[in-house]
Amino acid sequence: DWTMGAYREDAIAKIRAQVGDAKVICGLSGGVDSSVAAVLIHEAIGDQLTCVFVDHGLLRQGEAQDVVRMFRDHYNMPLIHADESELFLGALEGVSDPEIKRKTIGRLFIDVFQKHAHEVGGAKFLAQGTLYPDVIESVSFSGGPSVTIKSHHNVGGLPEKMGLKLVEPLRELFKDEVRALGRELGLPDSFIGRHPFPGPGLAIRCPGEITREKLDILRKADAVFIDQIRKHGLYDEIWQAFVAILPVKTVGVMGDGRTYDYACALRAVTSVDGMTADYYPFTHEFLGETATRIINEVKGINRCTYDITSKPPGTIEWE
Ligand code: XMP
Predict the structure, then answer these.
(1) What domains, with CATH codes, occur in the chain?
(2) Do the Cβ atoms of 70 and 79 come closer than 8 Å?
(3) Which pTM does this prediction carry?
(4) ipTM here
(5) Residues 49, 62: Cα–Cα separation, whole Å
């Protein structure tokens, strides 16, 4: 009979058998998946594990502080907070193709992990919070021919030269099961209930070229949207909600003046596992109030749209 308690014991035994007395580094993204993986692995092998939280400059507002506080201060886990925003944003300059963005970010993640694997005294394993839907979505779509829809950077194909083996204790689980496992491991509800956040971060919510200016605007708009959702008590009903900043400026009017600023799109979906999704049916009042707040509070945005595309045919992220 299947319980998360049994899964936990079994997973811990498997991790111990796989890694022996070797050192492991774990990429923490701040999301539920990598957090649960880290806590599970820490329980299995203690301080043989070092977590690496890579700040690629593509995080949401407040994200880095939250993660560091949680893991270093609350869990007392060895944690490296790698500020690599110059590296990532530099490499992404002028890049607008979604797949090149993802590949660039994936490659740099590997470089950064490799660097830290050396620094912790020769880690032999890299742990990741890869879930079952990540595994299958990278391979095929809707039972059709094998097509890569998007190259999820945290799946498969670590370059041989990296010389690190993968530890992926969540590979057989769906999101709701990961949350159950997280609860079983004692992670706080506020963390378990967090919306998923993709490894490439805000890069794939900023179609077209990524600039620091756009990222700053996007962070602020996103924070207002999430604040609205929390204030209206909707956070837990929604699988994921975020703002995308569009690569287009439009004309508006504010006070006596004409504005010429970016347009943004709000995205909020319900889903069970991220494989399919429906847009969230906000009330018109909610949408109107949110648009007004974003345009009033976020300098650089003067138009707000709501994305009503389901998945399929859309994807959840914009890239
Ligand atoms: P899409 O946009 O493909 O997203 O419908 C499905 C779910 O996967 C997340 N996602 C990612 N997660 N690395 C990740 O760790 C990635 O490269 C990546 N791309 C998308 C997305 O946020 C959604 O929850």
Answers:
(1) 4-192 (3.40.50.620), 206-306 (3.30.300.10)
(2) no
(3) 0.89
(4) 0.99
(5) 25
